[in-house]
Automatic annotation (TrEMBL):
Belongs to the LysR transcriptional regulatory family. Gene3D superfamilies: Periplasmic binding protein-like II, Winged helix-like DNA-binding domain superfamily/Winged helix DNA-binding domain. GO terms for cellular component: cytosol. Residues 3-60 form the HTH lysR-type domain. Keywords: DNA-binding, Transcription, Transcription regulation. SUPFAM superfamilies: Periplasmic binding protein-like II (SSF53850), Winged helix' DNA-binding domain (SSF46785). This is LysR family transcriptional regulator. PANTHER family: HTH-TYPE TRANSCRIPTIONAL REGULATOR YBHD. The keyword Metal-binding does not apply. One of its GO terms (molecular function) is DNA-binding transcription factor activity. The keyword Ribosomal protein does not apply. It comes from the Bacteria.
Length: 317
């Protein structure tokens, strides 16, 4: 037996109107199609539900017994559908999004401010953590999405590249005997003997740095290891060495006295929005992703060299 909601609704319509013609008109069906649906329902139930003549339609004894059951089934399914649609609307009004800490600090205030003007009824919760933790939370369903340079494609996660970034060099503004990296044609060769600020662990950026240095047969000078991108920028400002950072970090660099130099030849660092595999499409998430891309491009694009003009306040003596 394979009863359908459509069959039950047609049966209830005929029982209520006592007319095939009126029911067919109300349900926007032809009379032949409606009659075929009733015959199919009666065949599956193996009993006659309606007595029909050229002048009238009446319920049989079996039809009268089946009527309350059919009405209850239809009402239950329609109420459940209403509740599910309500839950769906509520989910559309809350987005849980993950980003790395330096993105949360530098970009998200502008992103959320602009998004609020587009979707004032949507509340966005931000989680700032490491890429591996954000990936786990997306897989577990704790986050609707996460933004970042997620290099490896995981089985339980879908990746959508939203824009490309590039690796850049960050140097302090103080005088050094290092090369003028912006004038160099081959950036990696220019790093021979230059102090380098590196990231701890097997991070995507550090892997790309090591591969590029190895390909150019370059040995850098003293290395300083840090755990976070903004720490690397601060160390570059203090003159400990050169930091390799993504162009999207230009927003974070605005808080430090550093200069950004493009790397030649250019190395692209894709930025992704990741979601749980199989997740239904979410229009509000798509809008947030578009705003994120727009703000990120504004912060990092079109100005490869960032110069800090204002000075930090010095402590009073």
């Amino acid at each position: 037996m394979n009863l359908s909601l459509r069959q039950l609704k047609v049966f209830l319509g005929v029982a209520q109107a006592a007319s095939f013609t009126k029911t067919a008109q109300r349900l926007h069906l032809s009379q032949a199609a409606l009659s075929a649906i009733i015959r199919e329902l009666e065949t599956q139930l193996q009993c006659r539900l309606l007595d029909r003549t050229t002048r009238s339609v009446a319920l049989t004894e079996a039809g009268r017994m089946f009527l309350p059951t059919a009405a209850h089934i239809v009402e239950t399914i329609e109420n459940a559908a209403l509740e599910l649609r309500k839950i769906g609307r509520e989910e559309q009004r809350l987005l849980r999004v993950g980003v790395m800490p330096h993105i949360a600090v530098s970009l998200m205030p502008a992103v959320l401010g602009r998004f609020a003007t587009l979707c004032p009824l949507v509340r966005v919760e931000i989680v700032d953590s490491t890429p591996s933790e954000l990936l786990r939370m997306v897989e577990d369903g704790a986050l609707d999405a996460a933004f970042g340079p997620f290099f490896r494609k995981e089985s339980g996660v879908e990746r959508l590249q939203i824009f490309p970034t590039q690796l850049m060099l960050a140097t302090g503004l103080q005088e050094t005997d290092w090369p003028d990296f912006s004038a160099e044609q081959e950036t990696w060769r220019a790093l021979q003997g230059v102090p380098l600020i590196c990231f701890l662990g097997d991070t995507p950026i550090q892997r790309m740095v090591e591969e590029s240095l190895g390909a150019a047969a370059v040995t850098t000078g003293k290395r300083t290891f840090v755990g976070h991108l903004e720490t690397a920028i601060a160390m570059a400002e203090a003159g400990f060495g050169v930091a390799v950072v993504p162009s999207i970090s230009a927003a974070a660099c605005q808080r430090y006295r550093v200069r950004l130099h493009p790397i030649r030849p250019a190395i692209e660092l894709p930025f992704y929005c990741i979601t749980r595999a199989g997740r239904a499409s979410n229009e509000t998430l798509s809008q947030l992703s578009a705003v994120f891309e727009q703000v990120a491009q504004e912060f990092s694009g079109g100005n490869p060299v960032l110069k800090k003009s204002r000075k930090r306040a010095t402590p009073a003596s």
